[in-house]
Known about the structure:
Largest sheet of chain A: 8 strands, antiparallel
CATH superfamily of chain A: Hypothetical Protein Pfu-838710-001
Largest interface: A-B, 23 and 23 residues
Oligomer: homodimer
Amino acid sequence: MYEVEMKLRAEHERLHERLERRGANRIDAVTQRDTYYDAPTRDFAETDEALRIRRETRDGETRATLTYKGPLVGETSKTREERETDLSDGDVMGSILDSLGFSAVETVEKRRERFSLEGYTVTLDTVTDLGTFVEIETEAIESDLDAARKGVGRTVESLGLDPADEIRTSYLELLIEDGHDRE
Amino acid sequence: MYEVEMKLRAEHERLHERLERRGANRIDAVTQRDTYYDAPTRDFAETDEALRIRRETRDGETRATLTYKGPLVGETSKTREERETDLSDGDVMGSILDSLGFSAVETVEKRRERFSLEGYTVTLDTVTDLGTFVEIETEAIESDLDAARKGVGRTVESLGLDPADEIRTSYLELLIEDGHDRE
């Protein structure tokens, strides 16, 4: 299965109204605090890798995970290796990484509110120091990728937004472009 | 609190008999598989650090932890910084370390059977490729360290062993000295 997604800047007040009118179901709301690390041996921005500690809080409970994302496998597939393990203590993991010579380069903090709308997941993100965004997402097998992208585009339009405004840059990259203060 | 411990080579059959006769209580039995890693940037044997993934199996359930041990703090205290977090998936952690340039240098595998004997913990270790050992351990505050060491020595003698045979080398170092095959 492939993830097909589109991200845009959007005001949330209008989106909330439209989602309610369309009968979308609210799935959940979480806050995510993602700290990205750089290695002592190489520059992950250059090698297209990422090492992240995520602290996700849901209903007052925080769960920490360590994620490694490898470089893109092939030019066209947009597939990358991703490996993840839960941690009992994200702060300890951070301090172990510090001791091993890794450095925290950026922290992305956001509140996510997720809705389900006719087979699509609509995520309203409020990202600290960046603003408000919406992400529309679905899953598809390889042969249905084109149809899935069109479906995502139609959902974007049905929410009063223009697919041409799609942002392909990650929050992490947007913060770095903005010259965001390093952690 | 400080740990006061003494480790010796010992046959377990005789120790089992003596422990039973002395009324020792069996606490538990676990297997531990410890994989030690070396960093891409430095030689932990030289810097006196350690990075370890432990997989501990108890009653059929395996728990994985990542542990970082820093160098000794001061020459005399024998105290080192130790930081540990549980992992939901030890194999994923191992493969993330691989991707980050760390290499597994040695694996120490042992079966531990622990007994409680008059305030002391008596651990019978069967270490793969090294043999059988016993560790006698107690905890003490700083002012009681001498008395605690004497108590540990007396317990060693009461089990029919000679405190002069104490081994101060870790299982990891013993395996490396033996030219144990690297993982």
